[in-house]
Here is the input.
Amino acid sequence: MIKNAEIIAVGSELLTPSRVDTNSLYLTELLNSIGIEVELKTIVGDSENRLEQVLREAIKRSELVIATGGLGPTEDDITKKVVARVIKKQMVLEERILERIQFRFRSRGLEMPANNARQALVPVGARILENPVGTAPGLWIEHEGCHILLLPGPPRELKVIFEASCMPRLTEFSGGIRLATQVFKVTGMTESRLDEIIAPIYTRYKNPTTTILAAAGEIHVHLIAKGKSEEDAKRILTDLADKIEYELGDFVFSRGEESLEQIVGYYLLMRQMTLAVAESCTGGLISQRITSVPGSSSYFLCGVTCYSNASKIDLAGIPPLLIEMNGAVSPEVAKGLAEGIRLKTGATIGVGVTGIAGPAGGSVNKPVGLVHIALALDNTVEHQEHRFGGDRERIRLWASQAALDMVRRKLI
Amino acid sequence: MIKNAEIIAVGSELLTPSRVDTNSLYLTELLNSIGIEVELKTIVGDSENRLEQVLREAIKRSELVIATGGLGPTEDDITKKVVARVIKKQMVLEERILERIQFRFRSRGLEMPANNARQALVPVGARILENPVGTAPGLWIEHEGCHILLLPGPPRELKVIFEASCMPRLTEFSGGIRLATQVFKVTGMTESRLDEIIAPIYTRYKNPTTTILAAAGEIHVHLIAKGKSEEDAKRILTDLADKIEYELGDFVFSRGEESLEQIVGYYLLMRQMTLAVAESCTGGLISQRITSVPGSSSYFLCGVTCYSNASKIDLAGIPPLLIEMNGAVSPEVAKGLAEGIRLKTGATIGVGVTGIAGPAGGSVNKPVGLVHIALALDNTVEHQEHRFGGDRERIRLWASQAALDMVRRKLI
Here is the structure.
């Protein structure tokens, strides 16, 4: 039975001032969900000696050791070599892996560089964990009662392999305590306001534990309940979750992993409506978020990033006089963009956004962070005025969040 | 003389899925600036056993060990106790510290809680590092040739103590070694192809060290050189950097922290050119990246995310017959988008992108990942065909990268 784990992140880049090991956060979350605690994390550079020392200690003290990174095709990718040395196994070439790697390159019309053959070397006896999205497979090695998992460093590859090939088997090994979790994603209120509302409730519970996390433009309330069985954990969870959900009402946009753009997509699909966007200060971010959802082409018709005034007039159908009279950042222009793009594309809903993302371009009357958002549906146009703080990136993000939430609230 | 360091972050909260140890990033930056390299980082919970193991190893292998956190007044603040055990010293009560802590509480009209007396306990022989902004002082201990620094976990306290009481002394001990660093950002080739080209060069050098990192759609080559002085480090760096830069040629898009969209912006500004984009599968991502750069409104006129065929016709000026004859994903439509948006907006350069981002919508002839990119300038239109692997997010990102790089290469 596996109860504790440690994570070793390999890579000199993770020892620089600017890089953070995010893989371990993801792994910790999933391990915790099946009752396995992460007791130690180590970050080690591409140094064979150091990695060897760290691995030897880790294998001695932990039941599960997950090493991430250092499985690439280059000289400084040392993880497999060092593990083989520590567990005293030879490396063999796995034809099956080699063929997969060669196929990946061929299917893109490329020749496999000789270096990549290195990725098909495997310590004898290792279980191979398929990597459907990259060249380096993961490996699962059992050695003197310790489970050693080697996973590639790129987060996308690590996640696919870990969820498909590791979690099911680890769940079997973890036995005992079960966790149940719930996330509420909230937008449109501040973190302190949210805490004011729900702290009187969640502070009365030791189990579930409640964690409040401010993410970009939204707040996530995480509940984790422990129980003797899945049903037990779920029962303990639901008791608190229901109360919190009741208090937060329709500020909650998601009860799971869905993003705001996914939720907006669901509603549009459900109501068989279509959407078009004319955005200025958000610069394409709203379009980009909406179209990041697979299948969005069935409800998203078109977006226009109208940075120049000429493009506001030509592409989003704004009357030139409207800009002249009110300025490009005004309720009138936001409404004009929403109506204009709706008429031009025949979409059910048109959204218009104009504002000042900064750092330059602000004035006393129209400061950096001022954003007007409008939504046109049938013959009505609604308008919101926002003042967002922070830098260009934050202002753009919060503006896109507010625009998407305006669509969501119109559809619920 | 101190050349290498390791950092131990103490605290169970740092082993949760949501918390990152940021102190070590700050410490790494300052240590690097005086030529001390961080070779290992460990994050350990409030477990005496684990911390003891980690400390014993650290003291054996490193010249400088910095432990952060675990100096608070509560039961689970274990750092000092464990260090005293490892170096076999008794703990004594330092009257001077106790008085300072009492004074801090009194000056706010509070009684010192009994717990806080614990913070005045110090292993015999330790040098006390004043904490002007909190109750826990830092400690500097020398033990069998190893310098052990204990610093409080709150970043504000850690920074004040480290800069005032540690950096001056560490600079003396570091023996004047200085680091110089250089990054090359490359796009348009695979990591293994890049390594094939430059490994024959960089493997001949122990100093500088070379690290190759694959980021989203690009590869970063990091060089770190050590020298006796700043000039010496720079000279050692330049020797290798020049050779690598020569081999990579114009695949290098940046020699610093600039992103591809910033570089494209520089060139457009420099040449007083303007840009407009008509994108389909990238869904606004290209617009969004370009407009993420402050000041982009002076060269970016407009972007159209034309998801529906009607919007390709109406907003980007594609002849309907062109789509009918070739399909929406075709070289002809990419070229039509580039030319159409250029003519419609009067931009110097028009970019058109169409492709299949997936997961659905692919066929044998036009598989998921197929992307056509075109660039229109004056009376010429150029076209590239790409096949990107991976999921929707990755395909969109690589397509945006290829489109931006096509603009960059046209302008250099």
